[in-house]
Amino acid sequence: MRIIVRIMLVLAALVCALAPASAAPTVDDASARQIDELLTVRAESGGLSRSELIERLSARLLGTPYGANMLIGSATEPEQLVADLRRVDCFTYLDYVEAASRSSTRDEFLTNLATTRYIDGRVEFAQRKHFFTDWSTRERLAATDITASLSAAAVTTTKHLNAKADGSTYLPGVPVVDRAVTHIPSAAVDATVSGALRTGDFLGAYTPEAGLDVTHVGILVHTPAGPIFRNASSLAATNQVVDTPLADYLRTVPGIVVLRPL
Hints:
alpha+beta, Putative xylanase fold, putative xylanase like fold, eight-stranded antiparallel β-sheet, Papain-like_cys_pep_sf
């Protein structure tokens, strides 16, 4: 009997080890309602273009409180697929909008969230798309990097993503990746560049700091009053998802990286 019990315990351990890392997370009631409301927006989108759909979905989350460090996982802590829409940071905000834009049901939303946030949908810390440009370079691709096509003033810099200037890494357990990152200096974002941007484009605030591509992300939306930068702001004066005039935001950052949704 003891042998049989021991075999059963070993088999149970194997089943747990082989269970998919992307098992559906527990979703709190408030987040479930938010997801369902996003799915309703998509269901009612009719013949809207993808860019218009992204605008409507992102608008539904305006006013959502900002929350830092929303994801769970590290080199030493098992990664979890987090779907918590009670608070968002700038990256999870884009994750949820992108996932909702592709989904009709809550299960589809969670599947698309995994493939948006993780390389090949593998819910592991090392597979998380930690960098903005991962969206245009790592599967499943969510966007195309169009930065270079928007301005002759665009500048390309080879970045060693995740490598600090002192040789250490920002994220232990995540490999350093060499990548050519192109940005348009803020001073060069003139009316021509702004006019070439489309509602729904994903914008990243470029940083010259070693090992990083951007420090903040959001969504471009054209309005009758001019283009705005829709983003989950951590500023004390806002601390929620807000619309910021693009011209105002550009005065605070070195430049922008532009990814266009697929």
